[in-house]
Structures are given as structure tokens and as C-alpha cells.
Backbone:
């Protein structure tokens, strides 16, 4: 199983590809909208790309709970377990 | 018609013959074709396997993240708009009041590649794989909105749609917006990125496209007896229109005056031009009237001349009717002989060429004119110098649906 560090690295690559944020800035305490300037449409793209990458399902009504990068990593980690 | 004078203070283009205005204009003067064989696997079964793809891919020029949020038509539009904006001298912190800046950016077909690619995703992977950006990317006003966001245009953002007359219609709208006092500066133009199997198959089914697949550079041959249809091109062009007063106040370089426009409809057929060319004739006459011009003032016409058997003849007749005995003074050319037909961007790119022809006093050639039809018109088969003194020119664009738009330009 991938570790949380692995998930964070892969997620950071997705955020960089879609939103142009440097992967190094995609840290657990960062909020997608407030800190990383990810808009709502890019957030949907990131969620769909993450579903494909990690083989998980992230329902639309869960996305609003994924405020920070750490929230997303935890969600993916739990969903993979 | 009197009123506010409108001038052209900036130009931008990305076309099959060049990635900017300078390279495009050099290629046009040199008579270089931008048409080539399509190397995509999807083209293998098409009747027409040639087109004019842009010389410089927009992905090589634009910021990667910005580009991936735009349809190819929006990417091309942004490339042309950024060049025009910079060329006008209006870019930067001392720019104009945003509430006095408008955009009129046309497209004939809109974000068709985004639409089709997302339909493929929908069918192959399901609705969750459709991009959340699909709508803003495929909507026809997407390119205009992207330009408006980039330059900060708050006086209104418009997208005239009239098939292959769209580019010229956006210029006509820009002139109106300035003359009505609704804006001081308007970025006008057109964009198209429809080189894809479906539009090529559909135009092919209309019997509109050339099938000269073995000689791509010789396929677009307006007014030549061997012409067998148009060749599709892609690209975008933008002109910065400005009230003369606003341009003078900031000491702007002026390329030409956008003197007036004429818009008419044939009300004849959805696809065929009126064989008598009456709607086109009226459009040219209206453009002259709006520009306070007489037929004797017109030394150059950048014709619509797409290389279709019927259209070229109908337009020739219209030009003769509109200018009467003064038609002998006008040197004609067809930019499409080199670029192919840029559909909704054609009028814009050809207006850039018309403005530069007046500015530099030279008309680019029409290539592939080996066995010309006898149409009673002076077509430039080699580049031609224009005389000194005040000059005027017309740019014609016509579109499926019976749209006719002529724009008149005058030396500054």
C-alpha cells in the first residue's frame, strides 16, 4: 500500500499539472482554494484525476470537506484501505 | 456618414503562414502557401486530406495552465489578442479605462474540438470523465471572454456569429461600438480551430472542399479555372480599433482608418450565394457610403474568393456591380490562396492584410492563378505596389446563411 507520503507526492503532481501550483507548495496544511488558488472547476478536475490515479471514488458531496491537502490525502488513504 | 473616426492602432495574428503579424505578412508578400497534407490518422479516410494548420502551435507560446483551460480556438485568439494589445501600446499599467474597453471576437464554429473530444470521453469513460471546463471551453464566446479577462475589458464582450462572415462582422460591430460612444477601444477579430475529422467530413459532404490531395500547396486557387473547392485553414487575427480622439491623445501609431462597414443578407439560400451577387453588391455599397467613399477611391479589394466554383464568380459579379466603371482601378487579391479558408477568422486575418496593404502600399499576390477565369477584374498574380496619396480598400467576407459583410479601410 502506498504511504501518505506517496499519496501526497502523487496528488502534488496532479495539482501542479492542473492548476500550475509548484508541487513543492502542495503541503498538508495548505488549503486548496485559499492558499493554492485552485478554483472550483480546477478542484473538480483534481478530484477526477485523483480518482483515476488512486482508484478511489470521491463523491461530489465529499469534495467540500476536502479543504486542505491533508484532508484529501487522509480521505484517499482511508478510501484505499 | 459623419461621426467619430475609428482608427486601427494594433494588429495581431497567428495563421497557417506565420505565428505573428510580421511573419504572416512576409509570407503573404512572398506568395508562400501554408497548406499541407494532414498527418493525423483520422484524416486517412477523408475526401479532403489537406488543410492550413497554424505555423506555430499556440501551446508553444502560451502559459501551459492558461492554455489547457482554453479550446484551441481560444488559445489562438489569445495569442493574436496579446500581440495586438502589445502592438497598440495600450498594454501595461497605464492602460485605458477598462470601462471604455470592449471586445468583439468572432468564431464561425466555436469550440468544436472540445465538444467532440468530450463526447469521446463521455462515450468511452462515462459522464464523470467530461471536463468541468468543457462548457466555458466550447461556448462560442469563450475566446472573446478569455481576451476580455486578459486585457480587463469591461465595456462589453461580444461574439458575432455569421459563419465565414463572422470576422468581418466583429469589425463592423467594433466600429459601431466606438461610433455609438459605448467604448473608446475595441479589440475585434475572429478565431477558428475546426481542423478535425467531423467538420472536414461535413464540408466535404457539402462538396465544398478541394480534393487536390496530391498537390496541397496548389489546391487553394481562387479565380483559377482549375479550382475545385476551398481548403480549410485555422488561426486567429485581432485588430485594436480606437476612436481617433483617444488614439491622438496618447500619440498612438495609426495603421489605417476603419472607415465603415456594410452588412446585408441574401435571403436566397442557406448555403449557395445569390448567383447575381446582389447582397454582396449592397454590402460593398453600404460600406462605401458609411465610409464617405466613392467607387473611384477603392484601389484594392481583399476578396472573399474562397476557390469554390460558384462563389468566386458571384463575388466577381458583385464587385463589378458595386464599383461600376471604376472597378479597373482596384487591384484584387485572395489571401486564401495561401492560408486556406479560416472560416470565422477569415475576415479578421484578411482585414489585417488589407490594413497592411494600405499601410505599406503593396498588395500580396494571389497564388496558383495559372489559368484565370476571365472576370473583368484586375487580380494581382504577383505582388503589386499601390500609388501614393490617400487610398481606400475593401475587405469582403460572406458566410453560409447568406451573410455579406464588407469593411472599408482608408489610409491614415
Residues:
Amino acid at each position: 500500500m502506498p504511504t501518505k507520503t506517496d499519496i501526497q507526492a502523487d496528488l502534488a503532481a496532479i495539482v501542479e499539472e492542473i492548476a500550475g501550483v509548484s508541487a513543492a507548495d502542495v503541503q498538508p496544511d495548505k488549503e486548496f482554494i485559499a492558499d493554492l488558488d485552485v478554483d472550483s472547476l480546477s478542484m473538480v478536475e483534481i478530484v477526477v484525476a485523483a480518482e483515476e490515479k488512486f482508484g478511489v471514488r470521491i463523491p461530489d458531496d465529499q469534495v467540500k470537506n476536502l479543504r486542505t491537502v491533508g484532508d484529501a490525502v487522509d480521505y484517499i488513504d482511508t478510501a484505499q484501505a | 456618414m459623419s461621426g467619430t473616426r475609428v482608427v486601427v492602432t494594433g494588429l495581431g495574428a497567428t495563421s497557417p503562414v506565420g505565428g505573428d503579424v510580421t511573419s504572416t505578412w512576409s509570407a503573404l508578400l512572398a506568395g508562400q502557401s501554408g497548406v499541407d497534407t494532414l498527418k493525423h490518422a483520422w484524416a486517412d479516410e477523408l475526401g479532403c486530406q489537406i488543410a492550413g494548420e497554424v505555423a506555430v502551435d499556440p501551446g508553444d507560446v502560451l502559459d501551459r495552465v492558461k492554455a489547457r483551460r482554453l479550446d484551441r480556438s481560444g488559445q489562438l485568439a489569445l495569442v493574436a489578442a496579446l500581440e495586438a494589445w502589445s502592438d497598440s501600446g495600450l498594454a501595461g499599467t497605464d492602460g485605458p479605462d477598462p470601462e471604455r474597453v470592449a471586445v468583439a471576437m468572432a468564431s464561425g464554429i466555436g469550440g468544436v474540438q472540445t465538444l467532440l473530444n468530450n463526447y469521446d470521453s463521455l462515450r468511452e469513460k462515462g459522464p464523470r470523465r467530461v471536463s468541468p471546463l468543457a462548457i466555458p471551453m466550447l461556448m462560442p464566446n469563450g475566446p472573446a471572454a478569455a481576451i476580455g479577462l486578459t486585457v480587463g475589458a469591461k465595456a462589453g464582450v461580444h461574439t458575432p456569429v455569421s459563419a465565414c462572415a463572422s470576422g468581418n462582422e466583429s469589425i463592423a460591430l467594433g466600429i459601431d461600438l466606438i461610433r455609438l460612444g459605448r467604448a473608446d477601444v475595441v479589440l475585434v477579430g475572429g478565431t477558428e480551430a475546426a481542423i478535425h475529422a467531423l467538420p472536414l467530413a461535413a464540408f466535404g459532404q457539402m462538396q465544398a472542399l478541394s480534393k487536390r490531395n496530391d498537390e496541397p500547396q496548389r489546391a487553394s486557387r481562387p479565380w483559377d479555372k482549375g479550382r475545385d473547392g476551398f481548403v480549410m485553414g485555422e488561426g486567429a487575427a485581432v485588430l485594436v480599433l480606437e476612436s481617433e480622439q483617444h488614439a491622438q491623445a496618447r500619440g498612438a501609431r495609426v495603421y489605417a482608418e476603419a472607415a465603415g462597414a456594410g452588412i446585408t443578407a441574401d435571403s436566397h439560400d442557406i448555403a449557395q450565394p445569390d448567383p447575381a451577387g446582389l447582397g454582396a453588391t449592397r454590402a460593398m455599397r453600404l460600406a462605401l457610403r458609411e465610409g464617405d467613399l466613392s467607387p473611384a477611391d477603392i484601389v484594392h479589394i481583399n476578396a472573399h474568393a474562397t476557390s469554390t466554383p460558384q462563389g468566386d464568380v458571384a463575388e466577381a459579379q458583385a464587385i463589378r456591380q458595386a464599383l461600376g466603371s471604376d472597378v479597373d482601378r482596384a487591384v484584387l487579391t485572395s489571401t486564401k490562396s495561401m492560408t486556406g479558408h479560416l472560416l470565422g477568422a477569415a475576415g479578421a486575418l484578411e482585414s489585417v492584410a488589407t490594413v497592411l496593404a494600405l499601410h505599406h502600399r503593396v498588395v500580396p499576390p494571389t497564388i496558383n492563378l495559372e489559368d484565370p477565369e476571365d472576370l473583368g477584374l484586375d487580380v494581382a498574380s504577383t505582388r503589386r505596389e499601390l500609388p501614393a496619396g490617400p487610398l481606400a480598400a475593401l475587405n469582403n467576407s460572406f458566410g453560409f446563411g447568406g451573410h455579406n459583410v464588407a469593411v472599408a479601410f482608408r489610409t491614415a
In short: Chain B touches chain A at residues 63-65, 68, 128-129, 131-133, 136 (CB under 8 Å). The mean pLDDT of chain B is 97. The domain at 6-249 of chain B is CATH 3.40.47.10 (Peroxisomal Thiolase; Chain A, domain 1).
